[in-house]
């Protein structure tokens, strides 16, 4: 089974042994960040540093100024945490020289700096709170920015494919500095209600689905009232229907699905227009269309008719793979990649990777993704090496 590992450019640039060390794991591919959100990352083997703090969302290559001239929204350049002017390009070159296929890792609708500087671009919940980390993908300016970013960040020199993360709605759930939002339990039904956007474009969109946006906002507030009192672990779309009513819930999802599919189709088309023949385009995806986040909620049949495949989160087990495997195209061209964590300190289980990979394959996975070779300890990487040699 083909396997790939995630990396940041700063894991490689400045470390002469990094590329060979990754190749020695037994992976065939590296998914290398080219556009990424803010983060604080450990680099346990780098000869020059141990912590990299990326203060804001940025691209990790030189921006094409001509592409963005006159645009109201544009990518942010990396700060002094970027080791060179083109860290992606330098890392990609070193990895390719070690015999690895390099695919870009592009984070789209997740950008806290954009939300801070342009709050009008952010998702606005039913209570009027803005989510600066979550650009509203229904807004035309945001849509144009994200599709342009997808094309530029994906199709870098020496890159054979891309994986688009956050290519859909982002919502309430967000790993934030000193996060204090877990005081009331919110199941995914309440998460959905807290992620519904009420910016002007979304209010218009709800109207196109036969809803009065003001009445909908009040209905969402009423539905969440009991949740604030006692919490709720209710999950699944029937729980959303219970909170909002089936017809209203369906209308909200219809609007959000239309906006998400429009972005996904446009982003993939923009990448393909900029890419050479044979360039692979995958999306990080969840098979529940109403889910938000890095793994965008999608319809499996639809997305596999748009992209070359998906990368599916398997931290809670491989159960999310089956809906995608069911809709693979004939001929074996569709990629269904099972994404497993390999960092024990972040709750993953690299010791069981061989068993987990076998279960994933039985449910239809065609490839593996390993998160994250740059963050993992030497012991974690040793377990990965042993597991991949046994597959």
Describe this structure in words.
The chain is an alpha/beta fold and about 400 residues long. Helices cover about 40% and strands about 20% of the residues. The chain is built from 14 helices and 14 strands. The chain has helices at about 20-25, 65-70, 85-95, 110-115, 140-155, 190-195, 200-210, 215-230, 235-245, 245-275, 300-305, 320-325, 355-360, 380-390, and strands at about 1-5, 30-35, 40, 50-55, 60, 100-105, 120-125, 130-135, 160-165, 280-285, 295, 310-315, 335-340, 365-370. The strands form three sheets. It has an eight-stranded parallel barrel, surrounded by four helices. A hairpin with a 5-residue loop joins β7 and β8 (about 130-135). The N and C termini lie close together (about 5 Å). The mean pLDDT is about 95.
């Amino acid at each position: 089974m083909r396997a790939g590992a995630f990396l940041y450019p700063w894991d490689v640039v400045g470390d002469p042994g990094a590329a060979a060390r990754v190749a020695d794991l037994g992976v065939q591919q590296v998914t290398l960040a080219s556009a990424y959100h803010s983060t604080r990352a450990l680099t346990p083997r780098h000869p020059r540093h141990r912590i990299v703090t990326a203060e804001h969302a940025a691209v990790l290559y030189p921006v094409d100024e001509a592409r963005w001239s006159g645009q109201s929204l544009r990518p942010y350049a990396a700060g002094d945490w970027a080791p060179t002017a083109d860290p992606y390009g330098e890392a990609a070159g070193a990895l390719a020289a070690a015999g690895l296929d390099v695919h870009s890792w592009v984070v789209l609708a997740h950008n806290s700096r954009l939300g801070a500087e342009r709050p009008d671009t952010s998702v606005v919940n039913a209570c009027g709170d803005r989510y600066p980390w979550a650009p509203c993908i229904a807004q035309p300016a945001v849509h144009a920015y994200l599709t342009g970013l997808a094309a530029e960040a994906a199709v870098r020199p020496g890159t054979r494919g891309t994986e688009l993360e956050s290519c859909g709605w982002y919502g309430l759930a967000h790993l934030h500095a000193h996060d204090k939002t877990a005081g009331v339990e919110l199941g995914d039904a309440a998460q959905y209600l807290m992620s519904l956007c009420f910016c002007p474009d979304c209010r218009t969109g709800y109207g196109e689905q036969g809803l009065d946006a003001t009445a909908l906002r009040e209905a969402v507030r009423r539905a969440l009232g009991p949740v604030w009192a006692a919490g709720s672990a209710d999950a699944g779309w029937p729980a959303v229907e219970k909170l909002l009513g089936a017809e209203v819930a369906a209308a909200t999802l219809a609007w959000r699905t239309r906006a998400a599919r429009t972005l996904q189709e446009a982003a993939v088309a923009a990448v393909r227009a900029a890419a050479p023949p044979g360039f692979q385009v995958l999306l990080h995806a969840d098979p529940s269309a109403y889910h938000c986040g890095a793994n965008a909620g999608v319809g499996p049949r639809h997305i596999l008719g748009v992209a070359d495949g998906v990368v599916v989160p398997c931290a809670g087990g491989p159960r999310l793979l089956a809906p995608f495997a069911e809709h693979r195209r004939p001929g074996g061209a569709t990629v269904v990649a099972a994404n497993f964590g390999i960092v024990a300190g972040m709750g993953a289980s690299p010791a069981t990777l061989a068993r987990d990979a076998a279960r994933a394959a039985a449910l239809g996975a065609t490839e593996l993704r390993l998160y994250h070779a740059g963050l993992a300890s030497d012991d974690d990487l040793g377990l990965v090496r042993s597991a991949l040699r046994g597959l």
